[in-house]
Design goal:
Shape: globular
Distance between the termini: 16 Å
Low-confidence stretches: none
Radius of gyration: 20 Å
Helix content: 55-70%
Number of strands: 5
Structural class: mainly alpha
Order of helices and strands: HHHHHEHHEEEEHHHHHHHHHH
Mean pLDDT: 96
């Protein structure tokens, strides 16, 4: 890891902790996707710097997320855990009811008409955000040896699978809602995310792998049934995408799959092919990287840059087809590291997620894990 990159990531994460109320006097401001990557970034800094203050920040962030996004919104007129558990049980099982996204607007009421544009700003639960948090909890156990984090990740995995997936009546095929209500009692967006089942399939396997080393392992934490069902959901899914963030997810998932003890060779080949196709399509047809900063979404590009960093970790034989694309990630990181490119309203409106994703791309080991 380049030392300058690590120092820059440190500064970014320190500013993030202060700005979002993790430390200092600011009102805590939690957002599940951003916080999942932030936890991993703090863990990466702890591992590389051997400074326990970063481990303390990771632990504090996990606790703050659970006590903010695992509970009712402050403007809802309700109190307590969204799972409906009492205080004592909620503390023991903070992810049992899932976790809110953390959007500024309350979720759409059941009697309100659907508004595609407005829905992006409304609260609820996203499946793909939940899997990112499961990943962060798994990383917490890997870096701390405290299996309680992974157990909470598994509880979240079971809740998410139960509430988000369903059998389509006509075909009998298992599908998945993209967005659910805060209490997981109704879908808010019924379409299925292209990579949601894939992300879950890989993440659930990682949670299971960690759980099998848990001295207090219980069969209640077994995810075999969910893993098999998710694998079936990915069997006939087209994975190639032209979206920068989606490409980043594919690349990262490819790396994560290579690290599993019984890597599915057929799925790995499918991921490799889809990833190369996606990058080729992006390079040939997407001109967004030539646009001025104010017309670009940094966090989506930085997600792709992080995925390209994952490719660098892979075995040479697997990574060779991607070698011509690696400079693309370097270009994206350099562009968004330039403070002049951070002065526009588009960057500022998404400052938290942009900065955290930049830190992840600069120092990706916290999120991606080591080379072994």
């Amino acid at each position: 890891m380049v030392i300058d990159n690590l120092i820059q990531a440190e500064h970014i994460m320190q500013d993030f902790a202060l700005r979002t109320g993790l430390i200092g006097k600011a009102e805590p401001k939690r957002y599940l996707w951003t916080d999942a990557f932030a936890v991993c970034n703090f863990l990466g800094l702890y591992e590389s710097q051997k400074d326990t203050k970063y481990l303390d920040l990771a632990k504090k962030l996990v606790d703050q997320v659970h006590h903010t996004l695992g509970k009712e919104r402050s403007d809802s007129g309700k109190q307590g855990w969204i799972s409906g558990l009492d205080d004592k049980e909620g503390e023991a099982h903070p992810t049992a009811g899932g976790l809110r996204i953390g959007k500024e607007l309350p979720e759409r009421r059941s009697d309100e008409p659907y508004d595609d544009k407005l829905e992006w700003d409304r609260d609820g639960q996203y499946f793909h955000y939940l899997t990112k948090w499961m990943h962060a909890l798994g990383r917490m156990t890997e870096l701390t040896g405290d299996y309680r984090y992974n157990r909470r990740g598994i509880e979240l995995a079971k809740t998410a699978f139960e509430k988000f997936t369903y059998l389509e009546p006509n075909s009998g095929q298992r599908l998945m809602f993209w967005k659910m209500s805060i209490h997981l009692d109704r879908p808010l967006v019924s379409s299925m995310g292209q990579h949601d089942a894939l992300d879950a399939w890989i993440t659930y396997q990682k949670l299971q792998q960690i759980a099998q080393t848990d001295p207090s392992y219980d069969t209640a934490y077994d995810l075999s049934g969910e893993i098999d069902a998710l694998r079936a959901m990915t069997a006939h899914t087209s994975l190639a995408t032209a979206d920068a963030l989606g490409i980043g997810g594919l690349l990262s998932d490819t790396w994560f799959l290579t690290k599993l003890p019984s890597a599915d060779k057929k799925m790995l080949e499918k991921l490799l092919i889809a990833s190369v196709q996606s990058l080729q399509a992006f390079v040939q047809h997407d001109k967004s990287l030539t646009y001025p900063a104010e017309y670009r979404l940094a966090f989506r590009e930085l997600g792709m840059a992080t995925g390209l960093e994952a490719i660098r970790k892979m075995d040479t034989k697997l990574s060779e087809p991607f070698s011509r694309f690696l400079p693309l990630g370097e270009e994206i990181i350099a562009f968004w590291s330039d403070e002049e490119h951070q002065k526009n309203s588009t960057w500022q409106e998404h400052e938290d997620i942009n900065t955290v994703m930049l830190a992840t791309a600069l120092a990706p080991d916290g999120y991606l894990g080591g080379t072994s």
